[in-house]
Amino acid sequence: MRAPIGAFDDATPAPDRLDLLIEPVAAAVRDWHGDVPAEDLLHVDTDPAIADTAVFTEHYGRDLLDVSANCVIVAGKRAGETTTAACLVLSRTRVDVNGAVRRHLGARKASFASMEAATGGTGMEYGGITPIGLPAGWPLLVDAAVAATEWVLIGSGRRRGKLIVPGRTFEGLPGAVVVEGLGV
């Protein structure tokens, strides 16, 4: 099947590629209950050596930069309490950690989580973290621009492979809140 974005000729419904998904993502796809059918979550097999956005879009097409989203893990702190959250923004933007994230989490200070905290907390590979299959109870802050994008390219939980999903999918994920101006 041809993907709805990019030049991928091997797009396959994610439920048919559970063998290529890391366990938290595979479990989320297996137990899918979203408004978007699981068959609309598409997996494309890609080279893990070029998983980072800049190199990936250089290889697979610069037009993908406008429809690619990055999922980053942040930690908000207030009065000795830490809240871990995921933020999803278009790749051509950056997460407004000290503004939108800090305010939304009610944190005194917010920062990007360390690589060890991000991978250990999600069970996913660095460079492939995705909002699908995040730990229960984690807030997922989704930039409004991502939710409004028809098809979005995101990580698959691994550096190998990507998921292509309708933007409206993210609004229905557990803990998701759409935030205007999350990506700046």
UniProtKB/TrEMBL annotation:
<protein>
    <recommendedName>
        <fullName>YbaK/aminoacyl-tRNA synthetase-associated domain-containing protein</fullName>
    </recommendedName>
</protein>
<feature type="domain" description="YbaK/aminoacyl-tRNA synthetase-associated">
    <location>
        <begin position="50"/>
        <end position="166"/>
    </location>
</feature>
<dbReference type="InterPro" id="IPR036754">
    <property type="entry name" value="YbaK/aa-tRNA-synt-asso_dom_sf"/>
</dbReference>
<dbReference type="InterPro" id="IPR007214">
    <property type="entry name" value="YbaK/aa-tRNA-synth-assoc-dom"/>
</dbReference>
<dbReference type="Pfam" id="PF04073">
    <property type="entry name" value="tRNA_edit"/>
</dbReference>
